[in-house]
Every structure is written in structure tokens, then in C-alpha cells.
Design a protein that fits this description.
By secondary structure, the chain is α+β, with helices and mostly antiparallel strands. It has 15 helices and 13 strands. The protein binds thymidine-5'-triphosphate and magnesium ion (MG). The site of thymidine-5'-triphosphate has 19 residues, from strand 1 and helix 1.
């Protein structure tokens, strides 16, 4: 059972229609028009971002561009300019860091700020009587100052959620969208969440929503009536988290960190091995885990590196790059396997194998040739189902290709 004594003040900041809003700042003539970032309507990709004007026509992120075009043919369709988004993202986070040293960047356009002790939620009379001063004043005033600082630095509008934990702060910022501030006071978490749909809880995807509906659960309040044991049986460890979240409880700390420049996974074998099949199977497994992380950040990676450490502790690394960024296990694995071939020249046992994916970029859909585009989109749909199943049943629920060989082995 989680300890509920932790009482933090957390701000969750999230830019409104981020990619589309950056385009509007760069091209003011787009202001007030429906803007869709993801590619031309003829492309096979999906919508990465839609301005709130476009959303009025029903356009949403992750919707095929062709469908977005049918809903809103007058929209301005743009391919997206990742370098600009990264530049704006850096400036948003820089503004956040002038409010708190503990800023956790959760994606390109969202961050958690630990403001515990920096703001004072008491009324002004109590504050004066106490004589103690906090760095900032009232949480709502402070959030307003933060919004203004970000607006001054970037021209962008953000929404802010304030709460005693990350979960509720994130839901609150969504509730405040676009352009607002929502504060859920300590003790008000359960009431705030009660009427929401279970799908509004971060991490609860479509598959979980469907399974919960079989238990007659659609609202968060109904989720609380399901015995914790049953949730645990149905969803594994995730069931416990779900139960805690239903009550608005979350003890995760805000961790000062930035978006990664590379994502690596490695493992040391329990017994040194010169069996190429075993090394290859483990490599697939590591690639799958690293690729999953790339996808969960909505990113793509272009460069794959494979590392082997032999029993003499010598380390050998080889890297290769794809023509375009990608996010799918099998694409990275093909490259990794070729690199393994090139590294497999020593008659010596292997102690450790590792993979690193780098040259990360935001995934804004892509326009390859027709065939490649369709294959990429098919792979994208396939992997999003795989990820959903793994979120529900754990990583071992689906093993592909060579990873089958190492099921049950420690990673
Ligand atoms: P979000 O914050 O989820 O969306 P948003 O900023 O466009 O809109 P909102 O006002 O609801 O916050 O994601 C931030 C950016 O990340 C978004 O502008 C585009 C990108 N993105 C993708 O590339 N693919 C995706 O599937 C999603 C959800 C976002
Ligand atoms: Mg956003």
C-alpha cells in the first residue's frame, strides 16, 4: 500500500496544440485558421497536431490525414519542422527552470515542476501572521506568472495544472485546456476525479477502457467499487496502480531530467557465451525495449549502435544509420543484426551485449514513396497494438522473432 503522507505542490505545464501553435508563431498569417501538422492531405500519415480551430471540425491527433481533410478541407496542412519545435521546447523548459530547480520534462511540450515550499497556499492574513516568506506567493498567481514568462519567451500559450501529485496535476492541466489554470487542492483529488471517464487517467488506453467496460466500469467513481484483488487479477501489477489512481493517489517524485539524446539497453549474461543465437535473441529483446521507449516519447531514431564486451573486458562498438528516422523493432533489429555480424569476429566468449538508439527526433509522420509510406503506417498500427497488449499484460506477453529463444531468461 502506498504511503500517503507525501504532500507536494506540483505544477504540470503543457503547451496548447504545440506543433500547430509554433507554426502560428512562425507564420502569423496562420492565426485563427485551422492548422494541421503531419503532412499533406494526400499523404498516408496521421495528424501529429491540430490547432483548436481545426479541432472544432472534429480533427484530432493520430487521425489519418485523409480523414482530417474530409472533416476540414479548408485547413492549412503542414509537414512539420522538428528543429523549430525543439527550439521552442528548450525555451519553454528554460522558463520553467526559472521557477523551480526540479523540472521533469515529460515530452517536448510538457513538464512537471516541483514547487513544494516555493509557493504558499494559505490566505494572505495567515501568511503575514506567520512571518515566513516563500519564494513565490499564491499558487494561482505563480502559475499565471509562469504562463506569462513562457508567453514572453516563446509566444506560446500553455495550460497549467496544480496538485499535490503528478497524476492529478497532469489531469488538471488537461482540464484547464486551452490556456487555463486548474488547481486541485489537497484532499480534493478523489472528488475531482470521480466524474471523469476511466480513459481520462493517463496511461489508460483504449484496450483497458474496453476491458473495464466489461466490468461495467466507465467512470472513475465506478472503478473504485471494483475489489483491488479483481483489478490485480485482471491487470497484474498495473491493476494496483489503477486502483490508487482511481482515488487520485500517486507518490511518484518529480525527477529533474531532460529528454534523452539516446536510448540504450544492455545486459550482462549470467554465463559468458559464444552462442551467436543466444546473443542475437538477447539483442532482439534489448532492441524491442529500447524501441518501445522511443515510441512512448513519440520520437524516432536514426542511428543504431551495438556493443559487445568480451570476457577479456574489451569493448567493441559498431554503428549504422537508417536513411530516415524509424520507431519499429524489426527495422532496428535488421540493422543491429548486421552490426552483430561485423562484431562477431573474435573467438572469445561474450559477457555483455547492448544496443543504443540515437539521432532522436520527434515523430511527425513522414513522406516516403507510396509503398514505403504504407508499410510504415502498417507497422505503426501493428506496434501500437503490441504496445497496448504489453502495457496490459507485461513485456513478455508478446515475443517476436528471435526473442522467443530467451523468454524466461533474466534481462
Ligand atoms: P500533446 O501535448 O499531446 O498535444 P498538443 O500540444 O498538440 O495539444 P494539447 O493542447 O491537447 O496539449 O502533444 C504535444 C505535441 O507532440 C503535439 O503538438 C504533436 C506531438 N505529437 C505527435 O507527434 N504524435 C502524437 O501522437 C501526439 C499525441 C503528439
Ligand atoms: Mg500539448
Amino acid at each position: 500500500m502506498m504511503n500517503q503522507d507525501v504532500r507536494r505542490t506540483i505544477f504540470h505545464v503543457d503547451a496548447d496544440a504545440f506543433f500547430a501553435s509554433v507554426e502560428e508563431v512562425l507564420h502569423p498569417r496562420l492565426r485563427g485558421k485551422p492548422v494541421i501538422v503531419g503532412g499533406p492531405p494526400s499523404a498516408r500519415g496521421v495528424v501529429a497536431a491540430a490547432s483548436y480551430e481545426a479541432r472544432r471540425f472534429g480533427v484530432r491527433a493520430a487521425m489519418p490525414l485523409a480523414r482530417a481533410y474530409r472533416l476540414c478541407p479548408q485547413a492549412v496542412f503542414l509537414p512539420g519542422s522538428f528543429h523549430e519545435y525543439k527550439r521552442f521546447s528548450d525555451r519553454i523548459f528554460e522558463s520553467c527552470r526559472s521557477f523551480s530547480p526540479v523540472v521533469e520534462t515529460a515530452s517536448l511540450d510538457e513538464a512537471f515542476l516541483d514547487m513544494t515550499g516555493a509557493v504558499d497556499a494559505r490566505d494572505p492574513a495567515a501568511r503575514r501572521a506567520d512571518g515566513l516568506r516563500t519564494l513565490f506567493g499564491h499558487p494561482l498567481e505563480t502559475a499565471e506568472q509562469l504562463k506569462q514568462a513562457i508567453r514572453a519567451a516563446t509566444g506560446l500559450s500553455v495550460s497549467v495544472g496544480i496538485a499535490a501529485n503528478k497524476l492529478v496535476a497532469k489531469i488538471a492541466s488537461g482540464f484547464a485546456k486551452p490556456g487555463g489554470i486548474a488547481w486541485v487542492k489537497w484532499g480534493g483529488e478523489a472528488a475531482f476525479l470521480a466524474g471523469m471517464n476511466v480513459g481520462d487517467i493517463p496511461g489508460v488506453g483504449r484496450a483497458t477502457v474496453e476491458r473495464l467496460s466489461l466490468l461495467n466500469v466507465d467512470r472513475v467513481a465506478a472503478l473504485r467499487t471494483i475489489p483491488e484483488k479483481l483489478l490485480r487479477r485482471t491487470f497484474g501489477v498495473a491493476g494496483e496502480t489503477l486502483f490508487q489512481y482511481a482515488w487520485g493517489r500517486d507518490n511518484r517524485a518529480v525527477e529533474a531530467r531532460t529528454l534523452p539524446r539516446s536510448i540504450g539497453r544492455e545486459t550482462t549474461f549470467e554465463h559468458d557465451t559464444c552462442d551467436r543465437e543466444i546473443v542475437s535473441a538477447m539483442l532482439w529483446r534489448l532492441v524491442a525495449r529500447a524501441a518501445r521507449q522511443v515510441r512512448s516519447l513519440h520520437m524516432t531514431a536514426r542511428t543504431v549502435s551495438v556493443k559487445l564486451r568480451f570476457v577479456d573486458f574489451s569493448i567493441h562498438v559498431k554503428s549504422a544509420s537508417l536513411p530516415e528516422g524509424d520507431r519499429h523493432d524489426h527495422v532496428f533489429f535488421q540493422v543491429a543484426e548486421r552490426l552483430l555480424d561485423r562484431l562477431w569476429h573474435r573467438r572469445m566468449r561474450v559477457r555483455l551485449v547492448g544496443v543504443t538508439l540515437s539521432k532522436l527526433s520527434q515523430d511527425v509522420g513522414r513522406q516516403g514513396d507510396f509503398f514505403q509510406g504504407r508499410r510504415y503506417e502498417k507497422a505503426r498500427a501493428l506496434y501500437s497494438s503490441i504496445d497496448r497488449i504489453r502495457d496490459r499484460f507485461g513485456f513478455a506477453a508478446i515475443a517476436q522473432g528471435r526473442a522467443v529463444h530467451c523468454l524466461g531468461k533474466p534481462s
